[in-house]
Amino acid sequence: MWKPPKFRKPPPVPVYEPTEEEFKDPLAFISSIRAEGERYGIVKIRPPPSFNPTFALDMEDFRFRPRRQRISELSACTRVRQNFLDKVSRFWEFQGIALKIPRVENELLCLFTFHDKVQKLGGFVKCSEDRKWGELALSLGFASKSGSASALRGHYERILYPFDVNRPILAEDLYLTKQNLSVNKGSFYNLPQVINQYLRNIQGDMEESKPETKIIGGVENKELAKLKLFGAGPKMQGLGISPTLEITDNGRAMRKRESTGKTDSPRKHADVTLRCEKCGAQCAMSDVVPKLFEVPKDKWHCWSCMKAFIPSLLKSEKFGFEQSEREYSLREFAERADEFKREYFGLPPHNIDIDRVEEEFWRLTDDIEGELTVEYGADIQALEKGSGFCSRFNPPGSLEDKHYKDHPWNLVNLPVAKKSVLQYIDGDISGVKVPWLYVGMCFSAFAWHTEDHWTYSINYHHFGEPKIWYAASRFAAEDLERVYRNEAKDLYNHNRDLMHHITTTLSPAVLLENNVEIYRAVQNPGEFIVTFPRGYHAGFNSGLNMNEAVNFCPPDWITIGRQALKNYRVVQRYNIFSQDELILKISQEAANNNSVEGSIVTLAHQDMKFMIEREVNERNQIMKLIRPKIAKTRLKNDTYCGICQTAVFCAYVVFDRRCNLKLESDEIYEVAEGFVDQGIEKGRDNLLCLLCAISKLETCDVKPQHVNLMVHWEISELEELTSRLKKTLADYEDWEVKIENFHEDNGTLEDFKELLEAGKYYDTTRMYQNVRQTVEEAEKARVLIEEVFNSNSRPILTHNDLSTLVDRIKTFPFTLEKTGMLTEQLRRANSILDELKYDDLNFKICENLINRERSLLFEIVDMRLIREMQKVIRWLPKLSSNYKGLDEAQKVLEEAYNMPGFEINNAFMQRLKRFEADLEQARRYNTQAQEYLNSTDHTNFVTIDCFVENMRFEGKAYDIVLMRQFSPQYCVDLSRERKASYAWKEKLEKYLVPAPDCDEPSLQTANKLLKLSEKLQLHPIEVGDLHERVERAEEWIEKLKKIFIKKGCAWSLKEVLLPRTPENASLTVKDIKERKKRNKSTDDDIDADDITDDMLIDRTARKGPCKLQAMEKQELEAIKNIRADNKKKLECENSTYCSCQRVAKSTMFPCDLCGEWYHTLCHRRSLQKVELCIRCVRSRRPNLNQVYPLLTELASIGLHFEESEYLQSLIERVISWQTNYKCLISNLSRNSERNLARATNLYLEGLLLEVSCDDQTFLYEAIKEKWPDMFMHEPPEGASICDETKTPNRKRRDKDADLPRRLQNPRKKNKGTRAQIEPESDNEDDDEDVEDDGPCAAGQCKRPDGNKVEWVYCERCAKWYHMFCLNVNPKDVRDDPDFVCSNCQIIHAAS
């Protein structure tokens, strides 16, 4: 969305408070402030307290009809966007499609700004060819360059590009000159033939990389090549269909398809047929050129009907303010205005800060979606309604006050004052000679404009809230108009006199952003605002107020008025009055010895000479071009040129109707809406001023008899009047000659003052103003000279004031006393100041200069710099001092620039500049060093080394001194960090070497080195390499853990891979449970600061082959001992078994490795051929095939660690076992005790291995077949051995039970687990069963719920029941180890 610039408050205008004496003559006072006022465009005048006129009109009788203003339409920026959006919307509406404003990055896209920027980049095709969409996205303020670029291109192609193609007269790259349009009027509208020609060349164009230039009506048109993006049918080769489209004369599109032998999927909307709403012509949607982006939902029109629509699209809408339907009295409007402001701001109208109102007003003007409308009683004619001052125009019953009725500041009297030129205009022109009244409400506004004919204007605030004014002087007028043309180009193209409409404004922020000097004034009640010629001004009302304004013309306006007419001719602005007529009337009055102000006569005489010269030149040019018929005429009414609308008076040209004079489109004048009709009709087309007639005669072939030169004033008459006028100016010319020759007469100031007094009759002329100013300056200079040479004290001056005074005195046409002595004093002061600039200035010389300065007759402020120079000399050693950092050096530099002495002496300034350059160089080094330090990437030390070397040795050790002087923190840090990084690299090379008994470096040392690298800010590339190797090693270890270690395992990976120690082998089940609870990582988190070089040495104990063999023997012996102990328990009475350490009962099963017996109620059998208990199962016992890939991967890691060594030893142990197995199998045919012992040992060794392989199973089968009794276990007394084929008898629900299992974990639902009747199970798989719940085996399960749901297992039917469903007491169940349900009891009793 378009975002206007933020409002900025312009600087204020001057405010004048004239004295009672100055206030007596308005035009004289305004002439005295004219020089400054012209620089600002407007000034504010605050009258003396004695001026307090009462508002003369009655609040009820004064009635008016205000204008309605929609605030958002005032701004040129919003209106051009609204107009453009309206045109695009109407274009698509004519195509039957409702326009929807697209969004980009969740913001509405401003189509006008988007279209304008694309056109400035060369148009859609140019942007696409040059790939400018990303650049365009950034210029529009979007964050994502790549993401927004494609979206912008799609939106333009879909919405705006068809609009450009269909209105070529508006698209810059399709502009047809007016000459071609006038010659070939049918070229633009003959679009069917154009598109046929384009489509006949489609296939040829597909093979060419550069599109051909087409010709339309003799004009090159590159836009046809762009149409290929929107033509009907596939455009690319290989799509299967080659389209052919012909458009008939009536615009109906007929499409033919030629098969190419290939199939193609039907295009979207290919079968949709459109019917023209106007003529009924039908066309397939796929054949419409340019293509439509959706099916029209409303009325669609064909090309033929579009021909009548496009001209209305090109035509700009006229804009003006509507009159309100209601007529208000002043009291009624005041009530409405106060109520509006109260409701809008929610506060009493007079309690709202004016700055808040101002910011809100400009926000509203830039709000393109704003709907706020206010009313403004503007241009109310005092001629009809009366004036706020007492005047002859006021209706009966109005206030009468003789004093203010005749007061010179009464706006009714000011335009016709004695020294005003307007008094010689016949009739009362509203707004010019007669005031206009303005009744404003909050936010009502007037747009940027100049006064008619660039006259002066004055505005008086009668009562109410402040009016805010903004102004630009005539020196900034062209800059302001340039900004208007750029911001409102479309409006300017159709309204060249846009600046005179007073309907289009621009925010001060836009103008200030474009470097236009504007100023601001706040006009309060009782204050005047005066605008100067060609001073642009605009503003708005902060609330209810009443103002009155009128124009006036001092004599100096006459010259400016001629400049205004030149401008009016260009913009075709009609004239309010004829300046020629005005000047001629003034001249006739003066020539007839009537009383005319001398200054008016003087300037009128100069303007008469200009008129004569102009008339002679223009009439001579006409006579050279053609010999027209000359006729004498007498003008009775205002007559205007038919082209430029200039008022003609002395002579004009009338073309006969028979010559068929035709005006070009840019010459035709249209009266814009929004103006108050002043009864002035526009000029006739065949009546032209002399200048426009010359232009037409040069371009048109006209016969002499068809041209009439109508003469109102002959040249001779003008010359005669000028000569008569010159006689009346004899006194003024004599006075002017005396002024010019006064210097030669060697007169005095008193003589010059006498001349000033003699010329008071010409007080409004520039000559008189210059003489008066010279006298005032001379008086001030004389007073100062007297003060210097005749006073006991030394007056204080600046050197510049003294120099200016002496220079000004030299320009006086007279000589003042003691001027030579003043000049000598200035020379001595200059000598002192010049010596301050010497390179060898020192403290002693400064003392001498101070003594010389004291000898002067006045004290020059600049001489105080000598004291400053002494401070500088004392301060200079600081430039060579060493500083703790850049900030301290910057403070010293700022301190130096605050000392005025440096600006005087070039040598000192050069030293300061060199210090500043050194500081800037140190800052650049510091910034570069900071970038290196803040870099997150691993550093290439070659770049840093080069930077450090350049920093140290560049320019003959210059930078070493620079570093020592400023000590830039990041440079110091970089040097320190660089040393630390190199020290780390040395440690890497020193300690990360293969261990003595290993071919690879240690992982332990690598981790410690990485820990040390965390302290580095500069990370060498080797850190990344080392980190990658460590990560690979750790990933390998994690893979190994996943293969071997079960969740919640009591054993570490190291303990699993190594043979069991006797201590671990003898652990009880209770000990193993305790290990599970406290099993945590044993890795120590060592702080990097605690790592010493000695700690980097790898001291990992290496377990050689001999030691591992010993550990294997110890493990085997320990297992044999455990087996023997467990076998002895079978022979003893009351022995305890299992993890519960209870006597043998029910069904039990033995562990094949340790020989311990376990209750099936406590532990679940694995149903494997080999049964291992919880004490003997330490890992997942993966298959050997799962381990081999890890060994292969280990070779590429390049680091040594314990786990890899232990895995290798385990694999070697497995391989050794497989070798022994093969030997045993080969000798197993002999049934001997020796083979039995060997087989038993080998079988136990296989069970001790933490990996599984097929050979272990084969060995089990072989032993079982050879020695069947070896696996025939006798259970303890009182127990029976568990049958491997039956479900284990236990009081827990088994996974294979026929009861349904819940798919979700009950614990995740915050439900309690079931009560456990028997001792806690140690089997990990049982933990999962505890979490199951569901209906029990009872006939009618009651589905109990709660924190604990207790179950019981029937030993006979092998089914699970809720205790609640069986009405069983949990205590009774605990006392009964062989529980039988009630159903089984009934069946047993019956049997």
From TrEMBL:
Localization terms from the record: Nucleus
SMART domains per UniProt: ARID, BRIGHT, JmjC, JmjN, PHD
This protein's UniProt keywords: Chromatin regulator, Dioxygenase, Iron, Metal-binding, Nucleus, Oxidoreductase, Zinc, Zinc-finger
UniProt region (Disordered), positions on chain: 1277-1332
Domain JmjC, residue spans: 403-569
Domain of life according to the entry: Eukaryota
Protein name (record): [histone H3]-trimethyl-L-lysine(4) demethylase
CDD domains from the UniProt entry: PHD3_KDM5A_like (cd15610)
